[in-house]
Each structure stands twice: as C-alpha cells, then as structure tokens.
Amino acid sequence: MASIKNELSNKYLQGVYRDLKKRYPEQKEFLEAVMEVFISLQPVVEARPEIQKNAIIERLVEPERTIMFRVPWMDDKGKVHVNRGYRVQFNSAIGPYKGGLRLHPSVNLSILKFLGFEQIFKNSLTTLPIGGGKGGSDFDPKGKSDNEIMRFCQSFMTELYRHIGPDTDVPAGDIGTGGREIGYMYGQYKRLRNEFTGVLTGKAIPAGGSLARTEATGFGLCYFMQEYMKDYKMSFKGKTVVISGSGNVAIYACQKATELGAKVVAVSDSNGYIYDPAGIDYRNLQLIKEQKRDRIKTYLNYDFGKKAQYFEGCKGIWTIKCDIALPCATQNEIDGESAEILVKNGCKAVGEGANMPSTPEAIAVYKANKVLFGPAKAANAGGVATSALEMCQNSARLSWTFEEVDKKLNDIMVTIYHNSANAAKKYGFEGDIQVGANIAGFEKVCDAMLWEGISY
Ligand code: NDP
What we know:
Layout (H helix, E strand, L loop, with lengths): L10 H13 L4 H20 L2 H4 L2 H5 L4 E10 L5 E12 L5 E7 L5 H17 L5 E7 L8 H15 L8 E4 L6 H15 L19 H18 L9 E5 L3 H12 L3 E6 L3 E4 L6 H10 L17 E4 L11 E4 L8 H9 L4 E3 L8 H9 L3 E3 L1 H4 L2 H15 L5 H25 L6 H20 L4
Parallel strand pairs: 3-4, 3-5, 6-7, 6-10, 10-11, 11-12
Antiparallel strand pairs: 1-2, 2-4, 7-8, 8-9
The structure holds NADPH dihydro-nicotinamide-adenine-dinucleotide phosphate.
C-alpha cells in the first residue's frame, strides 16, 4: 500500500486551513475533519490548478447556510426547558442537503460542522444526487417520557420546517433520533405544511419509509468490508468480530456479520461492554435496545448459556482479541493506544460504522501495520444511500421490496469500495481507501461546483 504522508505540505491548503483555524479556533472536531480531508486532497489540488483558481476549497469549508434556533419545550411536570437547535446546510452542489439530526447533550456547532462536512463527501460517494448537511440539538432524550420526546420534536420542527423540503433539505435520524423521533417530527411538518412529501427519511413503513432503511448502515458496512477484504483474500467467514455500540448501526452490523459467517464476541453502550465468547445473539440485542430501550448489561439476563460477562467502561472493548473491529458507537472512540492493542492482538481489518471513531493516531497505527481500514465516509454510507432510495420511492409514489432495496444497497457499497480504490490508484496511493474515498467524494462535488459557476 502506498500511503500518503500524514502532513499538510501543500501551500494553498495550508493557507485555507490557517484561515479556518483563525476564524473557528474553538471548533476542534470540525478542524480535525477538515485536516483529515485536506491531507488526502493534496495530490488532486496539485494536479488540478482550476481548484485554487476558483477557490473551491475556501467555498467547500464554509457552509452555504447555518441555522441556529431555540427549542422551548415543556416537561411532564409543567417546567419549561430551552435547548439549542441547529441545521448546517453545507453543500448543495450535487443535490438537496441530506444528513441526520443528532439529539445528544454534546451537540454543538463544531460537531455538526464536522459531521456536515464529512456528509458532503459521503453523499457524493453513494453515486446518488444528494448534497451534504447535518443538524440536531443538545437535547438529551435519555430518561424522557414519550410525551416529553413528542413535545420536544414538535417544537424543534416548528422552527425547522421553514428551512427544509423534499427538494431543499431532507434530514434523517442519527444518534438519539430514531423512528419514534422522526415520526413526531414528520407529523409536525405535515401539520404545518399541509403536504405529504418525503421531507424526512427513516420514516415508518406505512408512512412512506423504505424497507431495509433500519438495517442499511450496519448491513452496508459489512457489504463494504466484505468487498474490500475480498481483494485481500479475506472475508467475514470464520472471523472473530468486536463491535462497539449497541444502537442502530451496531445491531445490524452484528446481524449481517453473523449472517456472513463471523462470530461477534462483544458489543457495548456508553456504560460498558458485553463479552460473549459463544457469540452475541443479535436478536437479543434488538430486543434489549430497540424494544425495551434498556442498558447493554441486561444482555446477561438473556444469556442462558451463562458464558457472557459484563465490564464497566467503554475503552476495554478494544482489548478483546479479534480479527475484525467495527467501531459503531461514536467519534474518537479508538485512540492510538487502543489501535496498538488491536494490532498486537491480531486485528486485520477495521471498518468504521460510526462517524470518525478512530483518532488520527489510531489511523496511523492501522496504516503502519497494514490493517485494512474502511473509513467512515465510505464504509457507513449505506444509511444515507438507502435514505436517498427512500426519497426516490417517495417521489415516484412507489414502495420497493426489502430484497430490491437490499440488493441496491449491496451494489452501492460494492461501487463505493471500487470507486475509492480506483481514485487512490489514479493519484498514486493504491490500497489507501481513506485517501481514495476522500478524493472520489471530492472530485464529483468539485466538478459540479465548477460547472455551476461561482456566485450560485
Ligand atoms: P444510536 O443512538 O442508535 O446508538 C449509539 C450507540 O453508541 C449506543 O449504543 C450508545 O450507548 C453508544 N455510545 C454512545 N456514546 C458512546 C461512548 N462514548 N462510548 C461507547 N458507546 C457509546 O446511534 P446510531 O447507531 O444511529 O449511530 C452510531 C454512529 O453511527 C454515530 O457516529 C452516527 O453518526 C453514525 N452513523 C449512523 C447512521 C445511521 O444510519 N444510524 C448512518 C451513518 C453514520 P448509549 O445507549 O449508552 O448512549
């Protein structure tokens, strides 16, 4: 593998980054994401002078529009709370803004700009016509009643509805925003607009949702890694897998990895992790997390073989011996030290289900040790790709079968892998899928921006 040097030496990109850092010194997650992309784009910027001439990079790092608003809501005791709501409409060069809504106390502009920036390239990689955006609120859904969630979601949409639309901006779920929250938001949008359109994705099936959307990110991650590993004479069959998280992505990654012949031995939540040497039963995971909305430690109550163990804390999960690691929880969950331990224990492949779960130090360790590395924006693009398939079905007033959607998802993930691998090869970094994904995602957006002119 010809890895790119992990430093920013191109003068043009250095200058844009310096200005950005001066303007937004506090936005560390955003700056980290920009740096990661800039390092990959150096060969492209050098080969294509029109990029600098048309200030493509300066335009790319500034969202087209950022909306911030207050979200007042009343709890069950009648107390009024105020949260902050956001929508970052980052880039619409290739289609309407598209990206999830995150509900989590850690949400701030830096995190949403990092996610929105990543989304531009990820959406471009899907091969479908969708631009990049992201939004959310610092509201914490944990411990809230159904009615409190509903009141919050309705208040959130009472402001957001005027900025979105099926051809403008189509939000979806993310951490803390699942089917229930999308339902309450969609209901409010419909009431306010008096129209039934595909303005949100991740809808319930009877209300225009797509079959296989729930499974898409986790399944897509496994399809992507399977295709990637095939080039290196590997597969999921007979492998031991560790998955962090136990939310939407983790549950379905666990199911697909198991169906592809792997044994998933660990999953986690933000309190701790389960190690089950006999193999995690994904049906129990679904029951605990999707139906009971319970903590992962209750997995022990369903483990009748009594082999599983629960450990407090999150980091320890990466000390478990595995062939394949699928981080599916949150950003920066694998640092350099955890990556070293994974490698020492024989891990051969890492596929990112979560967004930016590996720190730059961790990625450097994977590359130095020839670990196959499936970066988030390529490996977890199956969710947004299937959301775009939901948009297609909504506009055509059609519903495809589970098998049809799953087949399209598989084809898309296979294409994303090959487009990323080919882009890496074209610029002399064969085998570096991180660089290839950034370049393939960027070039399509860049060409559209050039074609659309400067003052669009
Ligand atoms: P969920 O809210 O369904 O699940 C998140 C899971 O991660 C939960 O099990 C949560 O535990 C756990 N978690 C959160 N923070 C930590 C932490 N610090 N350490 C360990 N575990 C933690 O979210 P999703 O599964 O939808 O999303 C997971 C990741 O995947 C995010 O990065 C998201 O942006 C990304 N993603 C999701 C897509 C989707 O379609 N859902 C699409 C593409 C990317 P707890 O319950 O304790 O909070």
